């Protein structure tokens, strides 16, 4: 859960999740929404993938990124349980 909260602590990564919540995208499409280098976006994607908040699948020459809503739901559920099971 620490990796998830670390990933969510950054505004850029939260914005990437919002984009991926709309539709799956490759890194180039994602980077077009930000004023930062493609390697910086790749680093953010790596952090999100390590936290299992997103997944990637090779399609042709591109990696297509998708949001992993089940992990987000699980983490939020566990987080809320902390406060309801005092």
Keywords:
86 residues; alpha+beta
Layout of SSEs?
Layout: H1 2-8, H2 11-22, E1 25-26, H3 27-31, H4 38-50, E2 54-59, E3 62-67, H5 69-84
Antiparallel strand pairs: 1-3, 2-3
Short description:
With 86 residues, the chain is an alpha+beta fold. 62% of the residues lie in helices and 16% in strands.
Would you mind describing this structure in some detail?
With 86 residues, the chain is α+β, with helices and mostly antiparallel strands. It has five helices and three strands. Strands 1-3-2 form a three-stranded antiparallel β-sheet. A hairpin with a 2-residue loop joins strand 2 and strand 3. Helix 1 packs antiparallel against helix 4. The two termini are 19 Å apart. The model has no long low-confidence stretch (mean pLDDT 91).
């Amino acid at each position: 859960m620490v990796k998830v909260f670390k990933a969510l602590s950054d505004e850029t990564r939260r914005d990437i999740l919002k984009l991926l919540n709309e539709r799956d995208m490759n890194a180039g499409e994602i980077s077009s929404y930000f004023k930062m280098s493609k390697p910086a976006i790749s680093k953010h994607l790596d952090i999100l993938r390590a936290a299992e908040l997103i997944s990637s699948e090779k399609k042709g020459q591109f990696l297509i990124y998708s949001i992993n809503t089940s992990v987000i739901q699980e983490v939020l559920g566990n987080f809320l349980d902390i406060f309801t099971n005092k």
